[in-house]
Amino acid sequence: MSEVRASRAQLGDRSLFPELTARAYLAHASISPVSARIRAAVEALLDDYERGGALAYARWAAQRRRLREQLAELVGARSEDIALVSSTTRGISDIALCIPWSPGDRVLLFCGEFPANVTPWQRAAELYSLKRRFLDARDYLEDPAGALSALEAELALGARLVAVSAVEFQTGLRMPLARMAEICHAHGAELAVDAVQACGAVPVDVVKEQIDYLSSGAHKFLMGLEGAGFVYVSPRVVGRLRPRVAGWLSHEQPDSFLHAGPGHLRYDRPIRQSADFLEGGTLSAVGFAALGASVEVLLELGVPAIFSHVNRYLDELEPLVVARGFRSLRAPDPERRSCILSFLPKPGMNLEQLRTALGKRGVVCAIPDGLLRFAPHWPNHLDEIPLVDRVLCEALAEMDGAGG
Ligand SMILES: Cc1ncc(COP(=O)(O)O)c(C=O)c1O
After folding, report:
1. Using a 6 Å cutoff on CB, does residue 112 contact ligand 1?
2. Which of 15, 168, 223, 259 to pair with 106, CA 20 to 30 A apart?
3. pTM for this prediction
4. Distance of alpha carbon 92 from alpha carbon 97, whole angstroms
5. Which of 9, 13, 7, 8 is nearest to 381 (CA)?
6. Contact at 8 Å (CB) between 352 and 382?
7. 196: Cβ below 6 Å to ligand 1?
8. Are 105 and 155 in contact (CB under 8 A)?
9. Closest residue to atom 7 of ligand 1, CA basis
10. Tens of pLDDT along 72-99?
11. How far is it, in rounded angstroms, from Cα 73 to Cα 42?
């Protein structure tokens, strides 16, 4: 493991991904490939548990405590405001269940969002008799000032919460979170953010941006494995949450009965009033060992440096794809850009066929809801770009030849 750790990560250098078969891997907004650092961390964990069973627990519980600190550093939070969860959805659902709703409270949602940030709020609406109102996330691309005014007008009618993504999964639009939080708070509402398309590659600062709740899975720009993630709950709001999803590990001194002798087995200990009450049961040791290894790399490189590197890549890629007949959906304002670059194809183009033709030639990308989406990350080198362009040209020619 020490040898792998010694090999420092560098922007544009994919030597930590020696087994990656793609020539240009541009699907980090879907699932990141596994680095050698993750493999080493997971193997170390498995070795420990293979040898020691329960004796390995303390070491990896300590690793998860460090991980909360690393994640806090990544998003500008305090570690006590972070809880480890199994997915973006789990984090959002837990928050949605624990907010002290009153019947008739209004929740503002966005069309164009990934369903992970809609379904949990719809379920809460059913359970607690809330009212839902959909706004359109695309308005923020076309007319950001108008979109913010529309949000303000909705908030003026009264709303309890606004749920939005930090980065929209289709268009890659980076939402104006700080401004949205300011308007929400001015009208007594809270802001809940799905940050899975941002965390790890786009700067996020929960304190500066005044975010109330934030949830992110591990397997996209955080570059961990599926089945892990984290939630941030602002200290401003955590005391108001109802612990409706608490479990045995949510209490004060939850496990003292396991190591402090007789007389500690009780069911009346208070539930902790910190974000980690959401960690009600035993967590995924493997998932968080992997996440620790990937976040360590992200912190070494620094998110602002990763963001600049990726945007230099996208600056070069964008005109080449436009020249092949696609319409870029990148925000004109650099402040609204992310590490996702999506294109609208010509009408009638078979995108599934295009993705397959690109994949066959070693360029891996995604096609969410009718768009062609490229999502590089720190290991992508700008030298790949001529290859991506050539492969796109060949794939389009093959489709033309096949009448696609
Ligand atoms: C914005 C957004 N939220 C959530 C998810 C997935 O959530 P989960 O981590 O719960 O699978 C995705 C993509 O898979 C996404 O693009």
Report:
1. no
2. 168
3. 0.97
4. 9
5. 13
6. no
7. yes
8. no
9. 88
10. 999 999 999 999 999 999 999 999 999 9
11. 22
